[in-house]
Prior knowledge:
It contains 6 helices and 5 strands; from the N terminus they run E-E-E-E-E-H-H-H-H-H-H. By secondary structure, the protein is α+β, with helices and mostly antiparallel strands.
Amino acid sequence: xxxxxxxxxxxxxxxxxxxxxxxxxxxxxxxxxxxxxxxxxxxxxxxxxxxxxxxxxxxxxxxxxxxxxxxxxxxxxxxxxxxxxxxxxxxxxxxxxxxxxxxxxxxxxxxxxxxxxxxxxxxxxxxxxxxxxxxxxxxxxxxxxxxxxxxxxxxxxxxxxxxxxxxxxxxxxxxxxxxxxxxxxxxxxxxxxxxxxxxxxxxxxxxxxxxxxxxxxxxxxxxx
Length: 224
């Protein structure tokens, strides 16, 4: 399912605490008998609260009405949670990027590009050139070929995030948000799915498994 980012007063989005798309119940916090500028959104799945602070009001005949707010807790709420199989050193960059994304899409893009370099190394590449690494992974059928085009955008964005380039400032917000999806996708295709298939393969009887291995070995020899 497409990631739905948290949004103030929205009835449903992916919970920044449990990662599930859930219905949200909103509650304005009180200080003694007066309302504050803080709201809580309660997730119907994990039953945990996110904390929001109002940043903009609309004036009406009924008084001030909260229009916009920023999420304070958790501070990684504007991106999907990292995949469970994401390597720890990559996850550190991913989570830090999520925490700063709303304030600095440029900084988030640079961190995610670094995370992509590390991820390529975990998948068997040398990590020195993202362009070459992604193409190598696609050639090995570890990743689908379409990832090459998407990763080219990530690579360009990452470079421009550090060195001035041709990308417009307003493009960073959109493109950097897609980089979170790309890293999770690569983890899913390159790490999670092969692991799941191997676990399924190990459940097959030993006889058919050995026969398949022998057949695969003969096929490799004949192709030499």
